[in-house]
Design a protein that fits this description.
Mannose-Binding Protein A, Chain A, 2 domains, about 15% strand, rod-shaped, C-type_lectin-like/link_sf, C-type lectin domain-containing protein, CTDL_fold
């Protein structure tokens, strides 16, 4: 049944012929842990993953989803439901992945899903269907490697995720079974600061990209203006040189013409003086 697992004789018989709890590799080499016995509440499943330095699986692409489904079929877990990391605990109107704090973008909900109410968690099955259980229902679960429990990162939002997952692991180790849910709900509802930091970071990245675009446009405009100024300078130099050459040519012509006039005047005077002298 899709609303929750019915722990029946048939289920137990099916489990006896199915695969066993343990670590498996997906087609791309990623390590996952698959648990099928005896059935876990979502909060217990989250802690079982954290104890292994893992987290409940994030299914954020069709490619990843199909790899998981093929793995479940190949190891005999077809037909069963498994908890993932997605939940609406911090905000019942939005489902987020536990590992990354990202809202669900890629999805494969069946008709009528997701449900919106208090404390719902995402379940997948091997038939490529997504639906939600109350997080207090028992189900199988899948863990995957959690980078935030293995190393820190200089990025601020990832540092916060590292701290969050470390705190989650500490709560799992310190809490008793009767108060585990309350303590994890409190932690998850307080982790919204991570989302806020992520949103601020995203906004700053957008602003940074806009500034880069504006700077590139300004640099391109300056480069274009510099090129135009260079062309104007070259034009002026060329034309001034031509004008100077033209003016020099005109001056030479003027001097030559005046010299010729002077020579003609000299010849005329000399001729007249010669005639006067002969006449005398």
């Amino acid at each position: 049944m899709k609303g929750g697992l019915c722990w029946s004789f048939l289920t137990l018989v099916a489990l006896s012929t199915a695969g066993r709890d343990g670590y498996y590799k997906t087609e791309d080499g990623s390590s996952v842990f698959i648990a099928t016995r005896p059935g876990y509440y979502w909060f217990d499943a989250a802690c079982e993953c954290a104890k292994r330095n893992m987290t409940l699986i994030t299914v954020d692409s069709q490619h990843k989803e199909e790899q998981i489904y093929r793995l479940l079929e190949s190891i005999g877990f077809g037909g069963f439901q498994f908890y993932t990391g997605a939940n609406n605990i911090p905000n019942m109107r939005n489902y987020k992945w536990l590992s990354t704090e990202n809202f669900i973008e890629y999805s494969n909900w069946i008709s009528g899903e997701p449900k919106y109410g208090d404390l719902y968690c995402l379940v997948i099955d091997s038939e490529s269907k997504w639906f939600t259980f109350k997080c207090g229902f028992k189900s199988f679960f899948i863990c995957e490697e959690n980078a935030y429990l293995q190393q820190t990162n200089a990025d601020e939002s990832k540092d916060l995720l590292f701290d969050f997952h470390q705190q989650l692991k500490s709560e799992c180790e310190a809490s008793s079974s009767h108060d585990l849910q309350d303590r994890l709900v409190k932690l998850l509802k307080s982790d919204t600061i991570i989302s806020y930091v992520g949103e601020v970071k995203k906004h700053l990245q957008i602003e940074n990209e806009n500034f880069k675009l504006q700077l590139n446009h300004t640099l391109a405009a300056v480069e274009n203006t510099t090129k135009q100024l260079g062309e104007i300078q070259e034009f002026l130099v060329t034309n001034v040189t031509k004008e100077a050459q033209h003016s020099a040519g005109m001056l030479e012509d003027f001097i030559r013409q005046e010299r010729e006039k002077l020579e003609e005047t000299q010849e005329l005077l000399f001729g007249n003086l010669t005639k006067e002298a002969q006449h005398s």
